[in-house]
């Protein structure tokens, strides 16, 4: 084999190896990116669930307060003004 054909073969092999590595790297990066999306969705859904629980608890407290105010007189929760 001549020197030129050895150089051409080496460059072609190097290019093919680099191309295959690049494709695998891009697939790995895309897979990681998609997995981060899954984690973000799970965190968003957990936050939404927690907010709904807080709202339900708040509504329950409002209902209880209305029931207790109907049963007994409730004074203002602010301290009396000093003179």
From TrEMBL:
This is Cytochrome c oxidase assembly protein. One of its GO terms (cellular component) is mitochondrion. Belongs to the PET117 family. Keywords: Coiled coil, Mitochondrion, Transit peptide. Residues 42-69 form a coiled coil. It comes from Tulasnella calospora MUT 4182. PANTHER family: PROTEIN PET117 HOMOLOG, MITOCHONDRIAL. It comes from the Eukaryota. It is found in: Mitochondrion. The keyword Transit peptide applies. The keyword Mitochondrion applies. Its main location: mitochondrion. One of its GO terms (biological process) is mitochondrial respiratory chain complex IV assembly.
């Amino acid at each position: 084999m001549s020197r030129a054909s050895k150089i051409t073969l080496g460059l072609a092999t190097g290019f093919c190896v680099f191309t295959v590595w690049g494709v695998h790297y891009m697939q790995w990066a895309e897979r990681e990116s998609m997995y981060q999306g899954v984690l973000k969705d799970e965190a968003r859904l957990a936050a939404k669930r927690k907010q709904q629980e807080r709202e339900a608890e708040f509504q329950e407290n409002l209902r209880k307060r209305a029931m207790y105010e109907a049963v007994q007189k409730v004074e203002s929760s602010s301290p009396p003004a000093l003179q």
